[in-house]
Specification:
Chain lengths: 241, 487
Amino acid sequence: MRVNAGAAGGNALLPARAGRSSVDARKPGAPVLTVDGAVVLGLARRCLRAGRDGLSAVGVAALHHGDGASTIARSVSACLATSFGKRVVLVEANLRSPCLRQAYGLADGPGLSDVLAGTAALEESLRAARGFGKLLILPASTQPPGNPAALPGPALRAAMTRMYAYADILVFDLAPVLPYPDTGLLCGSLDGVALVLRAGKSRLSDSRRGVKALRDEGVPVLGAVLNRERSFIPRLVERMF
Amino acid sequence: MTDDDRNFARDALYVLFRYRLRIVLLTLTSVGVVAAAIALGGGTYTASARIVVTAAGSAGQGAQATLVLANNGQSARNQAELFADPGLLRPLLPVLKARLQAVRPRPAAQELARLETWLAAKLRVRAWAWIWTGADDWLVGPSDPDEVLLLRLRHALTAAAIGDTDVVALRFTWPDADFAADALNLMLSGDESAVAQAAGARLDIKLADAALHDADAQVQALDDQLAFVPIGQDAASLERQRDRIASRLAASRSTGDALRVERELSHRKLETVERAYRSGGWVDSPDAQDTPAGAPELQQTFVTLLDKHQMMLSHLPPDSAKVRAVDYQIGEVREQNYLAVKQVLTSRLATLDERLSRLNADIAADEASARDTDDSLVKLDALAQSRAAAAARAAVAQRRYDDAKLAVDALARNVSGIRVLSPAAPPPRPDAPAPGLLLVLALVGGLAMGVLSALLAELTRRTMDRPRDIARLLDVEVLARVPDLRV
């Protein structure tokens, strides 16, 4: 299973190569980066266990920009939709640097900010991701990006209630934890958050601060995803162990 | 392999491969630095020469140059290293300078500066190793710049060699191989006359000393043998024993002769008795001592019966029964007398035979003892003769030793100099540690530094690079690991 990702989708991405990625047919000339869904299988299973009554809302957040949270969110959404046959809505709650519209090649239109502001209906904002089963995309907003301060509140909870009519699982692509308070304010509405750490870049002190910030908001930290992990040992030597 | 072992091996490999560039760079740097040092330094070369040193009467006065023993594990007396006080060697500098200008294209001033520096450093290192010359003073004294250095050097070498040392190995170390050999040969060039004579006399001393030692050892061994002869085995005792045995043998032999005569007489008596019995007459004992008990009574009976027989023949026919009965009784008495006499003589013969047999055994034993005694006396005599010969040889060797010693002493009073047995040749290789060994050590050291640096870097790393970092440091479950597969 492959998930298409846009060029701005983060660094934990792969250049598309034959046999390793699917191709976005709607933008054949665009650079497409993919992540093998098998590597996020554990995260997908954990997302399924996060909620109650078969419904759950989980977030994917990173410490800083470029750590790969959006890519992981897309990957786990695609995995849930195709491998587990779940109805999934991928909500782009990262209003600071939205990228899903470009990644999936979506046309301009209303998004999450419009839904929360009441200027657009949820149904007209949801977009289907063709080739990924029952996966629906809710982009951030129309251009320019919406107001992050408007994210938390009753409007979001009402929107999430309506989203459950179309999905079993809501996957939120969240803004970075350390630079912005958006994620912390939003987390009260989620069943859990997966923290994405970038190998070789995420420092121990930052990681501890990120985990502490999430726990201080009362949201369960489902676990961590180690992105861009490098294996320095050659495969030939690795096989010996 | 257990899981712990496998994890440990994987961790070690992770560190090695992650910081491989650092390890390789440190190793190459270490090897490069050592290689450059080898290429620029060039090492030092040690030229060596072997010389014969003759004794000099002026050893105690003029010997002010210094000689240092090489502490290389060999006999200190046969290995010496040339060395000199910088003050004493300074007069040599003009000579070396001229030589340098002849053999070296480089400016001589640089070489001479290096020479002086080297001498000063060498002096500090070796200051503890002044040799005792056997003369009345150490070979360290005030320098006398007016004297010719080479002469004083030879005096020093000569003084060092007084005694039984005659071949000395000299060594001279210098960064340039050719210069090391040239300088050593230059310093050793000098008087070679009359040295062979002294060396030959000294060899005579050694040979005479060895011969004297051997002869003394033989004398001592023979004295030991003679001193530890068992009691009763010395010459006087053996001679007395031999005399006693001889007298005893003479007595035994005379006794044997007498016994044999007596036996012959007894044998003849027995034959006489037998003949008398066969003739039918009365058998008398040859001697009164051989008369058996009861013989007179039997003879009386015999005479009575004869008288009775004569009377009966007078009135009875000879073949009458009564006459024959008397005849029979006469025969009985006669035979009984014969057997008794014969028994006495036979018993005497047996006794004589037994005594003769015992006497012969005693004679044989005495003869054997006499032979043993004679042998022991011969051996003792041979030992005494050998000791006398060995003592004579020792005396001769002592005379030779004394003569050779006198000759050497006489030469030593008049001869001063050294003879070069084998001049110094430019050493083919530097005597510093081998370049290959240094490079190997640099390689190993560089690797060790690289690995140590890698370990330090890994221990001080503060980024989240491995799943175990997350699990151990954040106490958070690792949900997924996305490999970095960028091309």
